[in-house]
Structure formats: structure tokens, C-alpha cells
Amino acid sequence: MKDKLHIIVIFSIIVGIIIIAQIADLLLKPASFDEFGHYRWNAIGDIQSQKSVNQSINTCKECHNKIYQLHEKDAHYNVPCVDCHGAGNLHVAYHKGGNDAKNITSMQAVMKKEYNLEGCLFCHRKLAARPSDFPQIDKEQHFKFLHVTDSTTKCTECHSPHEPVFLLTDVNQSRLHPIVYRCNDCHNKAVKNSYSDVPNHPKIFECKDCHSDIVNDFNKRPHHNYVECRTCHLFHKEDETIGRIYKNGNAKFCLLCHEKKSFKDDKYPPKIEWPAHISKIENIKKTDEKICLNCHANQIHKMALSNNKSPHGSNWRSEHKNFAFNKADKKMNTSCSLCHQQDFCFSCHKVEIPHPEDFADKHKEIIQKKGKALCFNCHKTEFCKGCHD
Amino acid sequence: MEKMERRKFLKLGIYSGAGLLVGSFYAFSNKEKSPDVKKYEDLLQYDWGFIVDTTRCIGCGACVRACKIENDVPDSFFRTWVERYEISDKEVVRVDSPNGAIESFKKNNFSGDVVKAFFVPKLCNHCVNSACTQVCPVGASFHSPDGVVLIDKKHCVGCGYCVQACPYGCRYIDHRKGTADKCTLCYHRISKGESPACVNACPRNARLYGNLKDPKSQIRKILHKRRYGLLKPDLGTNPKCYYIGLDMEVK
Q: Is B34–A23 a contact, with Cβ atoms under 8 angstroms apart?
């Protein structure tokens, strides 16, 4: 027994340490630790209780509904208020009042009113890495094109950030248009030759390919030396095969170049005082958005667009069906997709060509939806007979 | 007699030492009051995931600025940042992110032809098998039940193991508080139904977050439709941040 005493001592020391460790675990471990895993459960509540700083556009709209409506319609509709005006938590808390507003001075509650040139260039500076369909500005070129002499001019002198491109039509209602390929979609450097001068160059579409008469007319008039089609007809790429064309015919757009401003070269292009220019003229509707065109349309091009060069030739229907329809086994050719992508016809017609899959059942519904006018573009009374004997 | 006194003295010392230890444990034990938390079972309905569409990003840095002000991130550290990849016609690749792109990018890196260039915004991937939570010695870094990797800043000792363990470089030590810190997917915002600050600030909809457990959520629809990639999938960390249009050069 005497020999075993030291063993008992060692064991009792070990047991003592274990007991102390257990007490330590009980007392020192936070109460909610290990509740649902190897972490403190209450930490989740701590992190959740952090106050949010950036306000969403829905909060801003509650008070600034008028500017929200304007902003919603134009190209910046996707840009949230916080990007230009700052986070806005103090502003909202101050104007909502209550306990949160106590320690906020009225100075802290003021939002940024405007952005300088640099702020706009965060998004719009010309960089190789930006997607080519995103509007980008090379400051030097832009100022040179517009004959701006003062290089410190702010963007907001001409562009209103809430309606930057002065669209006449809502973004979602503007005209859908098949894609226009531009040289710099493929080439990084400025292109000197026309693609038609380069042997074996793949065919690309230009405005004049379809709208030849209007382009020819434009080339006879004074504007053609200085601007191109897409200076006024902005193009926004929606996906690989389709985009939207915005027409800019309103007075604000003309004034971008032609209004007299201190920072612009006063000789060229011709400048006018606004609105003094129209104040003397009687008998015109001063609220008309396209007011400039009423007198000056002859400076641009004729205004009626007749698309006489339809993408399909005049005998297209009678000839194309010979390729598309195999008379021997009375089926559509499957080899069409070799040249045409699946959504090739769809990108203009917005209907599956020749028939949607459920054509037989739903034909009536489709007519109601699309309207008869669209159908008659292709379908004259004899149309069905063209394929079906 | 002398021998006995020494033994007594040692015994007394051990007992009083143990007593002091237990007493100090009691003194340091903190009785925390529990904040309002959603029920554990409610949180299990969510599994937050993130989509970055690199084809849409324009590198404006709005997300970086919004994150910095939302989470009070110290200067020169970032919870999210934007990288720019430029590949010249001689197949030279340059990657840069000047100050996390907080003031966007000033000019192209190459003066000559750039054959391919794009932006890649980065943030914590909220990996399912995250390296950073495994190495935490005190259990301060953890997965929330709704699949977000979080840091318990009251519990963190600031040892910095997790900063070294993260293969994506998404963690940093906040020297003002002496704790590790990282993207929380704006946990305080998403738990209230608001979108994270960076998603809220993105002008091009290049960022999207959503519930991966909900089959009708937009994030699931996009993941079924678009082709996406993951960052460093070979590490087996199983990230939940999906990159649409990811290039091979992005590491």
C-alpha cells in the first residue's frame, strides 16, 4: 500500500486539473458558444445589428419622386443614387427625425450636389478593358470634336446626369434594330480604309447598306462633314444580334453643340443664344420638343425614312422558299442553320419563322397580340399559297 | 519535522493556486445578453450565393467605394476590389488594381495593341469548405447557418492564421481593433432583405446575390442559363461566388 501512494497522488493531481479545466470551460466559455456549432451563436445577432449606411433607390424615391421619374426614363436608369450622391444614411436619418437625428448637424445631412469631371470619368473614361458597347469618352477627343476651349469644363455644363442622352422615347419602347457592326468591334486601332477597299474583307453592315437614299441625301447637306449617323442615332447593344436605336431630334440635343457657352470656341460650329434665339419668333410652339427641326431640318437630311432597300430583295419570297423548303419530302430544310443562327429571323420579326411551334393552335392569338399591320408586311392574301399548294 | 512543513506548504500552495485560478475564471467570465436573432431553423432556409458577371463590369469602382463606407474598412485594405487584366498582342499579361480601383482606372497599361482586356471584381467567395474557418484556433471564424463565412469580432484574438490561410487574399487584420475582418456579404443588410452595398451600388448589374436553396430565385435561373467559372477550383474550397465569363488568365 505504501508503494502505491505516489500513484494515487499523481492521479489525484490529474483529476484535479481536469476538474479545474471543466470549471474554466463552464465559466469562461461564452454562453451561446457551441449552441449550433463551434462558434458563438450571439455573434450572428451582433453582426446583424450593424447599421446599414448605403441607401437604396427606393428610399430616395419616397421623397424625390419627381427626379426619380426623370432618372428612370433615361440611360442612367440603372445607376443608383448612391454612386454619385454618396451613401445618404445621415441625410435620411436627419430628415426622418426622431432619436436617430439627434447628433447629426444639418451640414452632415447635405448630399453631394454635383460631380466633377473625374467622377463621370470613373465610368466613362475610355479604357481598353471596358466593354465596347459601353459609352466611353476620350476627354481630349471629345473636347476637340465639340470645340470646347476650356479644358476644366465639367460634364454637367452640357449633360444633365439625370437625363444624360435626352432620349425622346422610353428606353424600353425604342426601336429594335438588328445589330450594326462597327469597325472597332474587331479593330482596336482607328481604321483608315473603308472595308470595301480591303480585298476579302467579310461583309459588314453599315447604315447606307439599307438606308441608302437617306444617307445619300445626308451627304449633300452641311452636317455630313462633321458628324456621322450614330452621333444622333445612338445605338445600344442588347445582345449579340439585336440592339436599340435612339433618335435624338429634340432641341436639347442640338444645343449640345450649338448653344453659346463661355467654355466653347465661339466661332465654330455656329452658336446661338438660348432661349433668346426663339423668343423673338412668333407663331411657333415653344414647348415642341423638336423645335429646331421645324426650321432647320434642311440642314440635316430629309426626315421621312423610306426603307426601300429592304434586307430581302423583291423576288425574295419566291426564290428563298426554293432553298428553305424541300418539295420532295415536303419538309423544311434543316441545313438553314448552317448560315443562319437559330434566332436569325427572330431578331427582326420577333416571331419564329416560318411558323411558331404551336402555330395551328395559337395563330388567332398571335394576330391579336402583334396586330394585323405587322403581319401584312409579309403576308398578302396570296402568301400561304406560296408554299402550300 | 522540517520535511512535514515543506509538504504542508506545497499542499497549501496547490490548493490556494487552484482556488485563485477558479476565482479568476469566475471574475473574467462574461454574462452576455443575447441580441435579437432570427431562429436557427429560419436561417437554414437560406444559402446565400453570389454572381459576378465579368462581361458586364466596367471597372468604375462604385462597389469598392460603397463597401468602404458601408463597413468602415480601413485605408489600403479592401473587402471587395476590382482587378484589370490586359493581354497585349505579344501575349504579355498585365494585372493591376491601383488602390483596389477605388478611384477607377486612369489609363491603359499597354501603349500598343491590346488584344483582350477585361475587369474582374473580387470579394470573399464564402467557400463551403473554407480554409480560413478551419484554422481558427478560438472558433471566432465560422459559417453561419445560411452559408456566409463570418467573423465574431468579440471573440477573435487577431492571430492572423486565417489571413494566411485564405487562398483568395480576401481577409485582412484591422489594426484599429486588432481583429481579422472580411466581407460579410453585408450580413446586416441581407438579413433585413436589402441587397449588399456593392450590389446596390453597381450601375451595370454586374453583381447579383441570391438564395441558392430557392429553386425559383434569380441566381439559380442565371446559373442554369449562363456559363460560369470558379476561382481556383482545384483547391477544393467549393466557392459560392460564381464568375460569368471568367477567363483562363484569372487566378
A: no
The residue segments making up the domain with residue A274 are: 125-186+201-299
Q: What is the ipTM of this complex?
A: 0.85
Q: Report the residue of B44, B58, B69 to disrupt the A interface, i.e. the one with the largest count of A CBs within 10 Å.
A: B58
Instruction: State whether B55 and B161 are in the same domain.
Output: no
Q: Check: pTM over 0.80? Answer yes or no.
A: no
Which cell numbers in the block locate residue A351?
Answer: 416571331
B174, part of any domain: yes
Would an 8 Å CB–CB cutoff place A189 in contact with chain B?
yes
CB contact under 8 A, A188 and B115: yes
Residues B51, B95: one domain?
yes
Residues A141 and A261 in one domain: yes
Structural domain total, chain B = 2
d(CA B119, CA A228) in angstroms, rounded, equals 30
Residues B107-157 have pLDDT tens digits of 888 888 888 999 999 999 999 999 999 999 999 999 999 999 999 999 999
Same domain, B50 and B118: yes
Same domain, A78 and A16: no
Show the beta-strand stretches assigned E in B26-159: 48-53, 80-88, 93-96, 114-123, 141-143, 149-151
Q: E-strand spans in A240-279? A: 242-247
- For the stretch A208-219, pLDDT in tens is 777 788 888 888
A123 and B203 within 8 Å at the Cβ level: the answer is yes
Q: In sequence order, what are the beta bridge partners of A246?
A: A234
